[in-house]
Amino acid sequence: MAQNLDNGDKLPNDPILPGNSFRQGCAAKAADPLPASATSGLMGVSLHRRTALIASLAPLLSEVAFARTGTGAHTSASSHLHNTVHAPAIIRGAAPPPPLVMLDPGHGGKDPGAIGYSGTYEKHVSEAAAAELERQLLATGRYRVALTRSSDRFIPLEGRVEMAQAHKASLFISMHADALHDPTVRGASVYTLAGAASDSQTAMIAQSENSADLFGGPHVHATSPEVQQILASLVSEETRRGSTHIANQVVSSFQSRLSLLSHPHRHAAFVVLKAADIPSVLVEMGFMSNRSDEAALRQAGHRAMVAGAMRDAVDRYFATTRLGVG
Ligand SMILES: [Zn+2]
């Protein structure tokens, strides 16, 4: 069957939808652009108003910062202030648990994602690739790994972000293989969050991948859009640095092993990358709309190579972050 993946055991059997040979993953649901409040930064907020709001947000900020530090919190001086409220007693000399890497296979269930040139579903490719990356990361013994889904089920984008936050993930990696209208475009690419897309092609990819609007995580749900903006902009500077750092490592790993888009590190307003407190990256492993990329991603060996490159990137990310380089 054309849509079956070469993954040895899991053979997806969803029928190929009639009509076009491929389509964009979430285009039908991506019609709603991000609200202006989600992309306009702090423009329009007076300095005086910002200062007052920032002062009133201090307690919230400390909570977010604590959640963000994850395993690192056990060794940071600042965490001491919060131990009595947020954390169980720390046993002297106990080693902190390994960092938790949250893998996010795109789409699932009623959302097939992109449908490839010959009928492969993106949701199956992303699930198989994430399972392989999980296996490789666990094999190092250096990480804990959680997946937003390990079966073919639908999870809203905001639910994926909330899962990562509930796990106190140190890193969030969303895995995709989108489709474009131009079937000649091929190659991997890596995306980080920004209010405005770096280019029109990236804007289309972000629109395709976004199926819900969300700004901020559960920490800020109860606040106004204005406060969400300020809070997110303050707490996410470190997160942005971490996101850029992991994106650079993934691009570097991919460079010698598989074809890349030109300017392979791009940015746009991907909803699934909007955890203010967790460095997040979205990896398009290739384009299902390209015959060569689709054929490659159907092969378990190719997916193992892609996952190996991503594992190496994660290794370098944590090695340098712990040294304060990231
Ligand atoms: Zn996707």
TrEMBL record:
The keyword Lyase does not apply. CDD domains: MurNAc-LAA (cd02696). One of its GO terms (molecular function) is N-acetylmuramoyl-L-alanine amidase activity. SUPFAM superfamilies: Zn-dependent exopeptidases (SSF53187). One of its GO terms (cellular component) is outer membrane-bounded periplasmic space. Its EC number is 3.5.1.28. Keywords: Hydrolase. It holds the Pfam family Amidase_3. Residues 161-315 form the MurNAc-LAA domain. GO terms for biological process: peptidoglycan catabolic process. PANTHER family: N-ACETYLMURAMOYL-L-ALANINE AMIDASE (PTHR30404), N-ACETYLMURAMOYL-L-ALANINE AMIDASE AMIC (PTHR30404:SF0). This is N-acetylmuramoyl-L-alanine amidase.
